[in-house]
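As described in the Methods, two query proteins were run sequentially through the folding procedure within a single session, without resetting any intermediate state between them. The first query and its resulting structure tokens are shown here.
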Amino acid sequence: MKYLSILAKAFFSWLLVVVIVSLAITIIPGDFASYYFSEIVKGESLGRISSLYSKDEDFYTTFFDALYTLVTLDFGSSWIYKEKVLNVILDRLIYSAIIGLPALLVQLALAFYLALHFHDSKFLVNFLILMYVIPAFALAYFLVAFFSSYLNVLPASHTSYPGSWSVGTLLIHSVMPIFVLVFSGIAYPFEVCSETAKKFKESEFFALARLRGLDEKEIYRRYMSKHMLLPLVHMFALFFPAFVSGVLVIEIVFAWPGFGRLTYEAVLARDIPLILGITEVSATLVIVFTALADVVHLVLDPRLEEI
């Protein structure tokens, strides 16, 4: 029954996204096409383009058009890239995943290790909180200034675009973005794992295990680590869309051609088909992986099905 509830919640969330997108298209005043092409196209040609991208349909027509678009993944062609929106998005998603997925895995693994062995360290807690409160762009600029400008050991930005990259180029350009992604957000998973570890140490099970003569480190390795893995798996599924779909500020600072930077470029260029495609793909990723997180949590802890 819980699985059906998760599926229903995901489906209605997805429908809500379509409703919001349809309302935005219907309510926002003005003619997108005329606004974008007015400086480069005149006369009858502009009129034909405006009629092609007309917003005169009512809400219901717009809703079913948006629903069809999302189901078929046919978002049309980008005005600035002159190719299919889906192809543009997939190219940039690959680039974001190159730094996002390793950063997420390293962040969660490091948070797990630190919480398992140093959950009582006040110095570590204060250090991670400091890393959290420092804006990600400030940390990124510091790394660029120190490692690129001062030491000249890492490239600051300008990696190649899809289709022209090499493994070595990607690796050397991804070091600083991954570092910023890992340490700017590691405080939260560390805090969750630390709280889990502290509660476990206060439990009767831990006291009984100590009375049986088990070493504290052995208890941590065999039992407490399993309790800490559950929230980490849940966080992986929840954080995955954000890390893979790109972190806008990081990608702009490091000129990384990922999904976040694509969003920035699409908004600046007023590329409406691309903006709508980005919005719907991002929302779908969040909905799918949120549902997946709930399912994984339910599989790992079947007791939740009884609640």
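Immediately afterward, the second query was submitted; its sequence and tokens are:
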Amino acid sequence: MSTDILSNNAMKWVLSTIPVGDSIDLSHFELVEEKLILPQDDLVLVESLLWSLDPSTRLMMKPSQGGFPGLSPGDTIPSLGIGRVIHTTSNKAAVGSLVRGPIGWSTHATLDANSITVIPQEAKRLEDYLSVLSTTGATAYFGLVELARAKKGESLLITAAAGAVGSIAGQIGKILGLRVVGITGNKEKGQWLVEELGFDASINYRGENVEEKIRMCLPDGIDIHFENVGAHFLQLGLDYLNYQGRIILCGLISEYNQPQVTQLNNLSQIIFKSAIIRGIFLNKDFGHRLSDAYDKLEQWLDDGMLKNPVQQYSGFENLPSTFLKLFSDNKSFGKLLVKV
């Protein structure tokens, strides 16, 4: 068995050069080959099956900042994913079992047994474990339930509402009894939010006056602003935030490709409105309580109260081009995944 495993080499995508400014394209990725080595000392070797693509990976392609370590040329592009165990020196996962872990953009990965989660044999959809039952869903859950302390009857505005976290946050908002409005980039996405996910209203920032639509859809103001984009949208959120409103900073995707961040000119609103702005860094804030979120999210899934919107693409070779859709394709929605 060991000889059969070692007869194949692994392939992986690495960062070839550091992107400069807002320029990122296929030339920044390189496909390389490496020899497989059998793991030792409580490690597992997995064959990758499914990869999660996330905007935060772009932050790692910049100089180290905060909790995101910077990548160097030659480093494997990081990614959460699901793989099948093909060799193990740990009793945590048997050969043949499916596990979630930091597999990176690689056909095979050697993982610390403490970094993996074994997928239940009765799992119906593997993609659930890279979206609603993973860090994506937990971020939306803790952001609204714990940080925003959302209460029935309040209003919720979500930017990048058709994205991975935003689409789940909006559904959770409806479950909690909120009025939910989502900002997105085209009419079709807006219809999808309302008709498929149950949002109360949507705003197409490319085709509508956002400020006018906020006043129309949320005439009583914003109690909770769930921010995934930043820039102009964050400023508008502050302008229309209610007294003691809460802004949850989940992401700032508009700035990931920019060399300089946007400067806000209305921060005084935080004082006048006694508002709270709180960032969510899931592993540091709630890493010890992830099972609490997963249990609740799974219950909502099973009860049909929550949908898991995903878009799946095929082909390990297409990882870079699919990743770039996060920043250039106005047609993507939900969680972006790539299967083998």
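The mean pLDDT is 90. We note this only descriptively and draw no conclusion about the first query from it.
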